[in-house]
Design brief:
The complex is a heterodimer of chains A (about 230) and B (about 300). In chain A, about 75% of the residues lie in helices and about 0% in strands. Chain A is mostly helical and about 230 residues long. Chain A has one domain. The two termini of chain A are about 35 Å apart. With about 300 residues, chain B is α/β, with parallel strands linked by helices. Chain B has 2 domains: about 210 residues, Rossmann fold; about 60 residues, Alpha-Beta Plaits, CATH 3.30.70. In chain B, about 35% of the residues lie in helices and about 30% in strands. Chain B contains 11 helices and 14 strands. In chain B, strand 12 and strand 13 form a beta hairpin. In chain B, helix 3 crosses helix 4 and helix 8 crosses helix 11. The chains are: A mainly alpha (about 230), B alpha/beta (about 300). At the A-B interface, helix 3 of A face loops of B.
């Protein structure tokens, strides 16, 4: 867990204070405050993705833990949802830790920021569900590299984590609206700044949709893989 | 008392290959039933179908009175499974593996704690209660898997090749434990390649090949029905020649596999006499066993 945490924390402090010293306000905030909100979301995303892919794949395919569980009166849907909630819980601890560090640095403007915690859990659930889809499809650990390179990393760069969305060309800004991380950041940053997010309802709905659709697809694929 | 497992006309195919082809099975309570067959005969698939882990193409299954797969989950509440490949959790100790697994059956934590000592004792793992799985030998892992399968006090236990890969001491311990389970009145369905294991443990066996049952009965009945009572195995360079010259005439049935000649007869005195007279060949004179039945019915060809 510590390993999961050190990486985003170092990025946040290094870039936040290092770059931040050279930059004027970004998105109306000192860069360190801007970046902190983004890092809360990105670390949640990474944590959830790692757990729901590498760890879940280990359990499903290598250790055969899912098979063991399904010999008991437990169904595949219970296992898949359980894996998602577990990954989301680990991601919650990750995101919360970054949030607490940010708070300790004075970067959380008001108690409204506590609403970030349920946002973190929901974000974790959304990415865990997507990760489980990959796990159900994956023949090996190497397969997950495709997901990180083609989905996670580009998403991290185009969701408002490191710089405001407005910096992106129009078409990319529009495309970014389809990404779950964009909506996580759109919730977290205002909340940490003491403001109610402009389209909170939409943001929550998008994250929820990713979670639900992700789980449904993951379950379908897992059933096809394990039970036919 | 109703049968603990009933299978009627079960069919399942994978990729246009008929893996289970009209199988009928009935397991009465308290019986240890062996499912024997060459590789690819459909034994593991049959177990998975009975547990409701995969859907049949046709046929009916009733496990502990529940229809499968419709109510498979309810049925599994009183079923224990020892799979072919261990699937213990390496994140947990021996004790934790038992506790976590017991929770999947909805057993209260306090009740589980109470069961741990007897489960550990059953598996001979009491000194290893807090050991990590990685530190256990293959035999110990299998014993833990067996103990874990009993955490819910099952009426019916499935074992898929339980002693494959174990040394003789471990095998004997597992057999002793399985005999204990049967004498406790539990029902066991066992698949195995080891005919001596089936003969030792099983009240009844069914031999399946290509998804179909080709023989069923108690080991003793199958032996007396299909095989001559005495067997002489002859080894050595001259075995083949001797068989052609003398052995075939003295036996009711004579077969050759590689360097070994098998002579079957009701009375093996003549064969043994001839071999003693010859003096150059090693031989083994033994009663017929289940493996002889199996090889006769399924052939000596390799199954890939």
């Amino acid at each position: 867990m510590l390993g999961n945490l050190a990486d985003p924390m170092l990025y946040m402090l290094g870039l936040g204070y290092g770059l931040g010293a050279m930059l004027p306000e970004v998105g109306g905030l000192p860069y360190i405050a801007f970046l902190a909100a983004g890092t809360v979301c990105s670390s949640t995303m990474m944590s959830a993705s790692f757990e729901s892919m590498y760890s879940s794949f280990s359990r499903m395919h290598v250790q055969r833990t899912w098979d063991a569980i399904m010999n008991a009166p437990v169904l595949l849907e219970d296992v898949v949802v359980g894996e998602a909630v577990w990954s989301a819980s680990k991601a919650f601890m990750s995101g919360t830790a970054v949030f607490l560090v940010a708070a300790a640095l004075g970067l959380v403007a008001s108690p409204l920021g506590l609403w970030v915690l349920p946002v973190v859990f929901l974000t974790g659930l959304a990415f865990a569900s997507m990760g489980l889809v990959m796990t159900s499809l994956s023949p090996s650990y190497d397969f997950f590299m495709y997901y990180f390179t083609l989905a996670i990393t580009p998403m991290m760069l185009a969701s408002g984590v490191f710089f405001p969305l407005e910096q992106l060309p129009g078409w990319l800004q529009a495309a970014a609206q389809a990404l779950p991380l964009t909506h996580a950041v759109a919730l977290a940053r205002p909340l940490m700044n003491g403001e109610v997010p402009a389209s909170a309802g939409l943001n929550v709905l998008v994250l929820l949709a990713y979670a639900i659709v992700g789980l449904t697809v993951a379950l379908l694929l897992a059933r096809r893989r394990l039970m036919t | 008392m109703a049968a603990h497992l009933e299978v009627r006309a079960l069919r399942k195919s994978y990729d246009s290959r008929q893996v289970v082809d009209g199988l009928d099975l009935t397991l009465e309570p308290g019986v240890c039933f062996g499912l024997l067959g060459p590789n690819g005969a459909g034994k593991t698939t049959t177990l998975r179908l009975c547990l409701g882990l995969t859907d049949p193409d046709a046929g009916e299954i009733r496990m502990l009175g529940f229809p499968v797969p419709a109510k498979a989950r309810e049925a599994r509440t009183r079923v224990g499974v020892v799979p072919q490949v261990d699937n213990l959790d390496p994140d947990f100790t021996v004790r934790e593996n038992l506790l976590v697994y017991g929770r999947y059956f909805g057993i209260a934590p306090r009740a589980l704690e109470a069961r741990i000592p007897s489960l550990l004792e059953f598996g001979g793992l009491t000194p290893r209660e807090h050991a990590r799985i990685q530190t256990l030998s293959g035999g110990m892992k299998r014993r833990l898997t067996l103990a874990r399968a009993l955490v819910n006090d099952p009426q019916l236990i499935f074992l898929d090749e339980p002693t494959t890969g174990l040394d003789p001491q471990a095998r004997h311990l597992i057999w002793e434990r399985l005999r204990q389970l049967t004498s406790d009145g539990r029902t066991i369905l066992l698949t195995t390649h080891f005919m001596d294991e089936a003969e030792r443990l099983c009240h009844r066996v069914a031999i399946v090949d290509n998804g179909r049952k080709i023989a069923e009965g108690s080991p003793r009945d199958l032996i007396s029905e299909h095989i001559e009572p005495q067997v002489v195995e002859v080894y050595g360079d001259g075995a083949q020649v001797w068989a052609e010259r003398v052995g075939r005439a003295a036996s009711e049935r004579c077969e050759r596999t590689g360097e070994t000649v098998f002579c079957y007869a009701h009375d093996a005195d003549a064969i043994v006499h001839a071999l003693d007279g010859d003096g150059t060949l090693r031989y083994l004179h033994r009663p017929a066993n289940l493996e002889d039945v199996f090889l006769k019915l399924t052939g000596r060809e390799l199954r890939d």
